[in-house]
């Protein structure tokens, strides 16, 4: 597997002619979006102005105009960038993934299934889920799949009005190993202690009735970042060796985002929370910027490298 530096070289050297063509398309698209945005905004302002007397009597109507403005604007924006996004993923993301390992397959429209997401037990069961940029394959004997995912929960108020909240948004990875775990072990971000301090945080963690038993680890740095729950205390400590805790801590620091992990059956599930679609091209930033390239490369490399890191423990697990 190529390292991050080799992938960055591949991005610039092998893909550069494609990037230059896409960069021209991006500039034209940016100009088109600005023009359409100005015209669209003027039309909405004119409509609001023509309804000013009605708005004066019903100020709430202005809220609906504002909501409609942003909602329709988002739809128009998605429509305008659709072809550019598709071209970017096929011309840049797909070759990058194949550069990591040519046995990996990529489908920009699919995602990890809802069954696998729910099986991980990292989050509550979603009422709807979508995603994209699905990668699947086999790396040195380990089956892996991952994709962007957006899972949501439906709510209804006393008036029957429906709303949606995000359960998880980001990169979801699942890897299959030969070892079967007897119990279920979850490694979650330690939000209670970091928010409420050690005393109250520990109490909240110990009394989390939605999870199995709290497992205290003997690595202070790991404990500052993660909280561990398991149905099998002995197995949890066996799985989370000092070596693996250090790797997970390093992974969390590299990703710079909340990380959730579960060990269930013969699968490891990992979710990295992001607040954006990871492999969508930015229309307002150049594809030739080093920082932009590194974001794509870094994300892909992190997803693949964690499996490579975890494989070091496979021999240990198989002895159990």
From TrEMBL:
Record has Transmembrane helix as a keyword: yes
Superkingdom of origin organism: Bacteria
Transmembrane segments: 33-55, 61-81
InterPro entries the record matches: DUF3137
Keywords (A to Z) from UniProt: Membrane, Transmembrane, Transmembrane helix
A Pfam family hit: DUF3137
Protein name as annotated: Putative Galanin
Gene source species: Sulfurimonas gotlandica (strain DSM 19862 / JCM 16533 / GD1)
């Amino acid at each position: 597997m190529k390292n991050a530096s080799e992938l960055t070289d591949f991005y610039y050297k092998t893909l550069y002619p494609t990037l230059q063509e896409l960069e021209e398309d991006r500039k034209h698209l940016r100009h088109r979006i600005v023009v359409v945005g100005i015209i669209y905004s003027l039309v909405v302002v004119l409509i609001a102005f023509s309804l000013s007397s009605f708005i004066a009597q019903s100020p709430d109507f202005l809220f609906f105009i504002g909501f409609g403005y942003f909602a329709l604007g988002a739809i128009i924006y998605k429509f305008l960038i659709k072809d550019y996004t598709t071209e970017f993923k096929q011309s840049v993301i797909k070759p990058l993934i194949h550069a990591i390992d040519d046995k990996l397959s990529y489908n920009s429209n699919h995602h990890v299934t809802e069954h696998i997401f729910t099986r991980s037990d990292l989050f509550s069961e979603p009422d709807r889920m979508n995603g994209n940029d699905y990668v699947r394959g086999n790396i040195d004997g380990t089956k892996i799949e991952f994709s962007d995912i957006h899972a949501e929960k439906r709510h209804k108020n006393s008036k029957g009005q429906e709303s949606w909240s995000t359960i998880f948004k980001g990169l979801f990875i699942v890897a299959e190993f030969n070892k079967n775990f007897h119990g279920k072990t979850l490694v979650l971000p330690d939000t209670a202690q970091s928010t409420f301090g050690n005393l109250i945080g520990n109490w909240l963690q110990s009394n989390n009735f939605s999870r199995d038993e709290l497992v205290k680890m003997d690595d202070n740095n790991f404990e500052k970042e993660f909280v561990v729950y398991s149905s099998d205390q002995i197995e949890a400590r066996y799985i989370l060796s000092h070596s693996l805790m250090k790797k997970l801590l390093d992974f969390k620091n590299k990703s710079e985002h909340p990380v959730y992990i579960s060990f269930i059956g013969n699968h490891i599930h990992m979710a990295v929370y992001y607040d954006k679609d990871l492999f969508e091209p930015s229309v307002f930033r150049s594809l030739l910027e080093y920082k932009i390239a590194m974001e794509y490369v870094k994300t892909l490399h992190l997803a693949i490298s964690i499996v490579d890191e975890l494989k070091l423990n496979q021999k240990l697990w198989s002895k159990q």
